[in-house]
Amino acid sequence: MKLAGMKTALGAMVLAAGAMTCVSAWAKTSKSLETPSTNWNSRIAVTDNGSHQFGNPDAPVKLTEYVSYTCPHCAHYQQQSDPVLRLTVVPKGKVQVTVTNLLRNPIDLTIAMLTNCGDPNRFFVRHNAFFATQETWLEKAQKATKGQQQRWFQGPMITRLRAIASDLDFYKMMSGWGIDRTQADACLADSTMLDKLRAQQEQAASLKINSTPSFTLNGKVLTDVHDWAAVSTAITDTLAEQRDGTI
Q: Taking every pair of C-alpha atoms in the chain, what is the biggest distance, in angstroms?
């Protein structure tokens, strides 16, 4: 799904926010890195720009997903890819996955702020849940009144994000994870997280990535690859080439 341009109202919101890091360290015990039974799915890290990772940090294949929460293709990709990755190559320590936001609109921004709200080790629970319920809340967004949409695009940013969270029942979702409205509002106002999301947009732009979902494999952009079938093939081919010693 092609983006309508990076300098939209959302881009202006993110880039104009101003100043309103550190990489989470992996546990470095030799036992955790050498034991075949290591639960790589539970190995979570956060990068400098706020992207989230799971899997073996020393995996030979590093997959980065650039996704938008309002992109139906991204939701479809997530539903197809996540169970397979977590049951096959990630547990074997062969693949590490990084999730980076590619924001397209204020709803994306609101969800990105909320998925980063709370325990970082629970990020993927929130991430998966927003994609799993996309059809429900996206339908509400599509049926929003002119008055609601006006609140989403006018006024102070925090007021806009709170209006979206309220209109689309995101506060109710957050409460299911023990995060009340006051805590969620604090996360929506987190200027440090906003700066990290801005850095994610800059990273995507530097790679000339302008559609969702998009991917890099070991730092290389997968050109014209936007679905799980193609990503799966790229992973399989890369692992085969490494076994054969051709890369």
A: 60
